[in-house]
């Protein structure tokens, strides 16, 4: 043994099952006597409803029950979904009724749930339920909805503002008075939905004899689901086990708690049968949280040297119909400002606005891609005004290496003072320019323009706060077979966490990775957990696994010194056994040591051992949040006749501190970049004026496909974070966060001869042609 | 809804069952044949996750009714590995090249590529990207999948 694991390109332990078709996703689980649920959902964006007949549905052969608001059990703490993240600054809090009682607020809101012997029958029965809709005025467009005279998204509110937030650094007024020049820029950001290839799903299995519920959910956060089901159903947390089986992608929207999770639990308990609901793709478009619209209006003050001295502005953020994920998306939009740039004065306000559309919550990166986009658009726009190269513009404004640890003057949403712990922002920019042959491309671009070919290059620099606490614990246990069982609260949706945990433990205990079994995503296996959100799991489980395995190692050596009658210094842990350093044939295996600490032997623990088992638990986490960072370059060619955009190449330099598994990190980055490209060019959730969703299938709503994606070149620098003993920083979202900015800057750069300003994304071919046409008209 | 008696060869073994006329092949394979390796991602024929091979052709099992596959030969992801249980070159290459993360689209990716490469394993990057342009992956950004397809193609060409 003695094989280096941490930092090695170790193949994933998850893969074998998945490539053979042996994965176990939610809809693959079959239980005896299992029944199937389907939901009747609102067909109107805003209306008062009355349910006039459910008898035909109830009488359909195979139907077990039809649930409506009125028939939900009175034992519930509330028939309205409880706020997942309460906050005092929420002025008007709207969470949906588990099933709509009187007023529906978006197309897709659940009105009734049918449970039947098959999904087909349950859906047939939904069609037999009679609903009367009395339409109400709708608020659809977020800008209009933010105005005081707008129709109300919820008729009992005084306006559509859920909450107002702000971030404030320095003294903006004085800085504006002192700057050389100012400019204003306005843009609309539209990030799409979740679109994990596996939709959501829930399977409830209430065991009446035990008084216990097992709830399977394709969730990112099983402990949050347990907490919310416990609160909602008014039953002890210990009577609920939530299991996230193999989950087919998460990307944020699966991190929330949804009415269906409570409803399936209720149905299973009421019917005393397992009840399964697998969301279909149309439901995913109308009932799973999305991210969608933000309108940004910024004013920038700067010196003629290119130094940006002040930014002020306002963001109008579309909450959709409800606020069931609290203000996390709003908060993560403002919090990262001013990004990697040293801007001392900033004041940006944000209104979270209700509309009669699907609720919003974080999608990969949450508000961070929006904030990064804003900053990179500021850089390019000011650079253009001053005729400074965009790369030079960034070098002028980036936080320098000597500034670390750098405090931009803002606060993290957890209340701590924001600190950029470490990095090399300017070095990464130089590096990515070299990779992309930035200067060479400028020459190529000039020559191409002379031939009527429009090439563009776009830059983006970003930071990401990662590894948020409080913890993601790991228990490491050596069992009597000599296998290691690692259990953790962290759930996975494809990030390879089991592999990473195994690597860390294998290195500490010098044991083959195949001897390690990781149990995760199951509240029955580990007491506390958070979930896979905010690029936090690698950092937290990495630290906890390393610490727990380290404790197991100490425990093993301590016991072995008694067994082998040697001092601890004379011993080492090697290849699954504690051995005498001077004679490796004298050893005791980890399995034998585990047996000594098991209850089967001797009737007492060895002297000096206070805890059972050869195991240890750790909740070690990072002291403060480490910041990952990076610099990206996109190269595009824009066809001004068709409006088509070809992505020529994409370059990434990323710093996530000490890398645990470069293969997995590269996978996260590349996949994340493509998600950002999807936002920049393809993904668009469209509503008509009445609030009807117009894009509810993958013919209308476009996702990035292999045929359009460029080769993505990834390089890393590793500046270990001083915030934790392993130097770790997160990597899950660092691909997505800068990608939209790099892409839009590249597209705008290609259209420089037309003096185009890209004011929105996704940039569709139609929009490109509009930009070109506008320029032509202006020239005439 | 009229029930239909359906017989087919799935992964070389006979499968028979009764299904409603409206049952699509994907549901039949998952529910009646118990082969849950085939995943349903959109059920409107765009995402490609449910791709299986019917009489040699890659087919979206959500767009084909089970009755239409009566008496057909079907290969699903569970039938891709070699008879001795060792991995098919495509599966091996998927693991080697980190061509999967959550694994949900993987069955469709592998079956699509299996059918595509069986016609001619010598394929360019561009042809490979085109071949999987009907399969959506939200995790990987496709790069690992293209690399995996090339690696597998080289091995298959030598067979």
What secondary-structure arrangement, pairings included, does this model have?
The complex is a heterodimer of chains A (780) and B (159).
Chain A: H1 15-19, E1 35-41, E2 47-53, H2 55-59, E3 63-67, E4 103-104, E5 110-116, H3 119-128, E6 130-135, H4 142-145, E7 161-169, H5 172-178, E8 181-193, E9 201-207, E10 212-217, H6 222-233, E11 240-243, H7 259-271, E12 275-278, H8 281-287, E13 290-302, E14 308-320, H9 328-334, E15 345-354, H10 368-386, H11 390-397, H12 425-435, H13 438-450, E16 454-465, E17 474-478, E18 484-488, H14 497-509, E19 516-520, H15 537-564, E20 571-574, E21 577-580, E22 583-589, H16 590-596, E23 614-618, E24 627-638, E25 645-655, H17 662-681, E26 712-716, H18 736-750, H19 765-779
Parallel strand pairs in A: 1-12, 10-11, 14-15, 18-19, 25-26
Antiparallel strand pairs in A: 1-5, 2-4, 2-6, 3-5, 7-15, 8-13, 9-10, 9-12, 13-14, 16-24, 17-18, 17-23, 20-21, 21-22, 24-25
Chain B: E1 3-10, E2 13-20, H1 25-32, E3 51-54, E4 57-60, E5 73-75, H2 89-96, H3 106-119, H4 125-131, H5 143-157
**Rg for CA atoms of chain A:** 28 Å
Mean pLDDT of chain B: 96
| Proportion of residues in extended strands of chain B | 15-25%
User: Helix tally of chain A?
Assistant: 19
What is the rounded Rg of chain B? 15 Å
Q: Would you count the extended β strands of chain A for me?
A: 26
* Helix percent band of chain A: 25-40%
CATH superfamily annotation of the largest domain in chain A = Aldehyde oxidase/xanthine dehydrogenase, molybdopterin binding domain
Looking at the overall shape, the CATH architecture of the largest domain in chain B is Roll
Whole-number count of domains of chain B? 2
Largest sheet of chain A: 7 strands, mixed
CATH architecture classification name of the largest domain in chain A: 2-Layer Sandwich
Query: What is the CATH level 1 assignment of the largest domain in chain B?
Result: Alpha Beta
Count of DSSP helices of chain B?
A: 5
